[in-house]
């Protein structure tokens, strides 16, 4: 991860404690990526919601697809990377569940109609 000197803005090595350019101590250097990533948190929450949402394909598709989008954006963050990965895995798993659920639903309906036509 990249650090930058707060005084002069020069790029620093991770293990550097003093800026070689201006001599200022850099223990409070700016870490541009080191902040809470909303995408990771939203993706994580959508991943959790998809655990229940797959039961109804109408909800399962948008929730899990949005979960995948937000989580993969959130993978760039450092602090919330774990959440982003969890959200991504949950969203993908339950998108598959949603697919199977809607296919099972279609199969049931087509069997219902087959019976209907055979009967008459
Ligand atoms: Zn400096």
Radius of gyration: 24 Å
Tell me how many strands there are.
2
Q: Output the strand order for the largest sheet.
A: 1-2
Portion of residues in helices?
55-70%
SS-derived structural category = mainly alpha
| Uncertain stretches of 5 or more adjacent residues | none
- Oligomer state of the chains in this structure: single chain
Mind explaining what this structure looks like?
With 120 residues, this protein is mainly alpha-helical. It folds into 2 domains: 1-32; 38-119. The protein has helices spanning 38-53, 57-74, 81-119; strands spanning 3-4, 11-12. Strands 1-2 form a two-stranded antiparallel ribbon. It is rod-shaped and about 85 Å long. The mean pLDDT is 84.
Question: What labels describe this entry?
Answer:
mainly alpha, 120 residues
Layout of secondary structure:
Layout: E1 3-4, E2 11-12, H1 38-53, H2 57-74, H3 81-119
Antiparallel strand pairs: 1-2
Summarize the structure.
The chain has helices at residues 38-53, 57-74, 81-119; strands at residues 3-4, 11-12.
């Amino acid at each position: 991860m990249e650090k930058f000197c707060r005084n002069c803005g020069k790029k620093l090595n991770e293990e550097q404690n003093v800026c070689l350019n201006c001599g200022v101590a850099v223990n409070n250097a700016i870490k541009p990526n080191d902040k809470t990533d909303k995408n990771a948190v939203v993706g994580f929450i959508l991943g959790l919601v998809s655990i229940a949402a797959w039961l109804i394909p109408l909800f399962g598709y948008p929730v899990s697809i949005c979960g995948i989008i937000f989580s993969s954006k959130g993978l760039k963050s450092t602090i919330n990377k774990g959440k982003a990965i969890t959200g991504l895995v949950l969203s993908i798993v339950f998108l598959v569940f949603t697919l199977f659920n809607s296919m099972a639903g279609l199969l049931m309906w087509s069997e219902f109609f087959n019976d209907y036509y055979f009967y008459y």
